Amino acid sequence: MSRNDVRSVRxxxxxxxxxxxxxxxxxxAMALAAIGIVFGGLxxxxxxxxxxxxxxxxxxxxxxxxxxxxxxxxxxxxxxxxKVARAxxxxxxxCAVHGQISDVTAMSGTGPLEAxxxxxxxxxxxxxxxx
Length: 131
Hints:
Blueprint: H1 3-19, H2 23-68, H3 74-87, E1 91-98, E2 101-108, E3 115-121
Antiparallel strand pairs: 1-2, 2-3
């Protein structure tokens, strides 16, 4: 190899090195954006799960409260169920008391992360004249 050939090879290598300059910054930026997207998705999913659990717990507690006060009548039992659900950061969308059995539907969350849960409560054994 002549001296000119060595110089041209060195120039070509320097040109290539200069063209790669800053490419790590682009890769790091893309990796951080991907991590941010994944993290945002996980946060959204965890908020949806939280809303579902909150609605389920509120529906269970509200149904138990309504079933405990069935003798006072449906409106009084449902008013108590709504109060219990509000304490759980949820709202009762449906409440029905049929004899000793209460049926409550509660909702929690807002917008696309809104969750609904239904719960029934009453005596452990059979209810009615055959009991």
